[in-house]
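tool_call predict_complex ligand=adenosine-5'-triphosphate
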Amino acid sequence: MFGEKVCKVQLIPEHKMNIIEVSNITKNYKVSKGKSSFQGLLSSLLKNEYSVVNALKGVSFNVKEGDICGVIGLNGAGKSTLIKILTGAMYPTSGSCVVNSKVPYKEREIYVDKIGVVFGQRSQLLWDLPVKHSFVILRHIYRIEKKKFEDNLEYFTKIMGIDKFIDTPVRMLSLGQRMRAEIVSTLLHDPKLLFLDEPTIGLDLIAKSTIRRAIKQLSEEKGTTVILTSHDLDDIDVLCDQLVVLDSGKVIHDGNKSDFINKFRSNKKIVVEVDGQLDLKQLSKNPLKEASIVADNTYSIEVDEQTQKLSEMLKELVNELPIVDLSIEENSLEDIVHSLYH
Ligand SMILES: Nc1ncnc2c1ncn2[C@@H]1O[C@H](COP(=O)(O)OP(=O)(O)OP(=O)(O)O)[C@@H](O)[C@H]1O
Ligand SMILES: [Mg+2]
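tool_result ok
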């Protein structure tokens, strides 16, 4: 009898809302010509001579609530420009974006209460004061209620591991310590979204991994949506749900990080220095036929580990060539962006 009654358990897929919607944003900077000398600048201002830098050329993407979205790209790709627009610090030239139901650059005053922003190169901490003093000042700026401030201070101090130096003046901190204090300072008012522009730039491996762990914990425990820019694919690999790759102001990848990262990881370069000159044409059976010349007697060979075995390639090279020196290099972000999209 009981068997006839089928209990249907429906698994409803988790449906997350978009918290960020960016539509076709462009940003053009006007730069006066002849900026190299004062006279040049003056004359170009008087003549009204400008050149235009197209920093963003129609950027569109969405981010789901609670996700960590990484934006990577080479120098000058437009990452910081994008963050400035998303945080309301700058108007786009055209296009629009809605973040947390607000247009950041139009509704900045109410919007800033809900976001935290860290620009890796800039500081909102006061240089000569102990870290905690800056936090107390920020409490008054953001009008954070005392109990909430104390609870948040305790929580974020713990996850960022800054308790040992919270009473030390900011100028005495290492770059990694300062960055962790900087991130705490922007979280004290409990923002729903956190924007980090190059949070790990210039840091050593240990400092990088501490920051990554803390961002992950923050996202998991508080459900904060995080947008971070980076040059470092490891940041993306460890942290992100979504990857946006910018190249010269355009989105060249939006979505899954694994395809991009696998491609990146499986591309290696073997650089060999040999004793004497080689005639590349005569080495048709040798893997070096895929090589390019780097310097006198030094050749570089691309290996795609998805189709070639690095160990076999190395064995073949060692057997066939009078090798003096050999190294294996990972491809740079620049190499991969060029090989994939140019
Ligand atoms: N205030 C400005 N005035 C004029 N041009 C600018 C300004 N800010 C940025 N640019 C130019 O816009 C382009 C994008 O710069 P942006 O700083 O957004 O790149 P980025 O991806 O953050 O680079 P990086 O990795 O070096 O931080 C570059 O060509 C840059 O020179
Ligand atoms: Mg930048």
